[in-house]
Amino acid sequence: MTGLILWLLFGAIVGWLAGLIMKDSRGIIGNIIVGILGSALGGWLSTVTMGTNFKDFSIEGIAFAVVGAMILLFLKKLLVGKAG
Hints:
The chain contains 3 helices and no strands. The protein is mainly alpha-helical. It has one domain (25-84). The mean pLDDT is 86.
């Protein structure tokens, strides 16, 4: 149960940070979804580009998670447009 709560909290923070950077506002549920999916994308990108696998909490892991979430928000803007 603690792991789930930490994932939700981490997702909310990552999604919120990505939204601030990309100027894309969502509610808490949207932040959690974008943050968790962005974390997965960022983790995959870190493995493909650098051969790293973040299993422990680190600044680099957070950075890749935020970048992954920013990529998702960018793709959303491309597909849906600024009105969506």
